[in-house]
Amino acid sequence: MTERVLITGGAGFVGLHLARRLQRDGAAVTLLDDLSRGADDPALRRVLDDGATLARHDLTTPIPDALLPDPYDTVVHLAAVVGVAQALTRPAAVLRTNLLGTVHLADWCARRPPSVLLFSSTSEVGDGAARTGLAGFPVPEDVPWVLAEPGSPRTAYALGKMAGEHLLGHLGLPSRVRIARYHNVYGPRMGNRHVIPQLIGRIRGGEDPLGLPGADQTRSFCHVDDAVDATVAVLRHPDPGAVTVNIGNDREEIRIADLAGRLCALAGRSPRIDPRPAPQGSPDRRAPDLRRLRELTGYEPAVGLADGLRQTYAWYTR
């Protein structure tokens, strides 16, 4: 019997990559999206041409029964406002949008419980405990929830994800609930609100010196293909209880200055690096503990940073 999958935010970055993978696996995929990235998208058209269904809807309003009248085997909730700049400049809108989206998805699932329900969370849920010394590195899933700077506008994103984890984890549905805390996922078609595409644009634009906030901070970047593989493995795991896992790549933690250097090399440019203060609320280090993910699924990241950056650079410079 064909698996029926609903992906909220399915026209977004991870959502569309996940949709392609599930289509290859034989699933019937529905994308629920407000098309805030734009409707004129060749990649989206290819997925729709391959048989996916698009349900256009803004999740800040309830899902009408007529829009999705039938239950789904698997529901993946990826829809959210993302990006540090968004949280810093529109914290109330980020929190409101992300909370309402999760509440309305939860209300729909309560009426039509899926067999599996996955919520896309974030590494920022664990950042507070690491920054306050309540957790070491790499950061595991069972750290305390800490808002290190509760008054910071950036907190809006982590707060919304924390609330979403708690809400969906305690709905009391018969669904197998999966919480996936993604750590710095990157790759082709990720938009322009994240450090890698922003650096590519600035380097190619000839910025010299290249101002680099948080140059000495470190991150562990995870290619989207690896993130999708891990997501599918978590969805397929038979554990009937709620499962929370970090998803990322723990093999190649890198300084932001060194990341910029690799991208400069790909661009054939050699600007002077001008280190600048880190963005407000930005953690000095982010590194996921993947032991639980490995134990459950056998996952190992397959795309090295060098290959992933080449792919991403090529996509953004087509």
Structure report:
This protein has helices at residues 13-24, 42-49, 84-89, 91-111, 124-131, 155-169, 195-204, 224-236, 256-267, 291-297, 305-316; strands at 4-8, 28-33, 53-56, 74-77, 116-122, 176-182, 185-186, 210-213, 218-220, 222-223, 243-247, 253-255, 273-276. It is an alpha/beta fold and 318 residues long. It has one domain (4-186, 224-250, 287-302): NAD(P)-binding Rossmann-like Domain (Rossmann fold). Helix 7 packs across helix 9 (256-267), helix 7 packs across helix 11 (305-316) and helix 9 packs across helix 11 (305-316). The longest helix is centred in the first third of the chain and has 21 residues, at 91-111. The chain starts with a strand and ends with a helix.
Structure classification:
alpha/beta
Got a strand count? 13
Helix content: 25-40%
The total domain count is 1
Which fold does the CATH topology refer to? Rossmann fold
What fraction of the residues are assigned to beta strands by DSSP? 15-25%
Task: Show unreliable segments.
Answer: none
Strand order in the largest sheet:
3-2-1-4-5-6-11
Say what oligomer this is. single chain
Looking at CATH, the homologous superfamily is NAD(P)-binding Rossmann-like Domain
What is the end-to-end distance? 40 Å
User: What is the top-level CATH class?
Assistant: Alpha Beta
Number of helices: 11
Form type: globular
Gross CATH architecture: 3-Layer(aba) Sandwich
Radius of gyration from the alpha-carbon trace, in angstroms: 19 Å
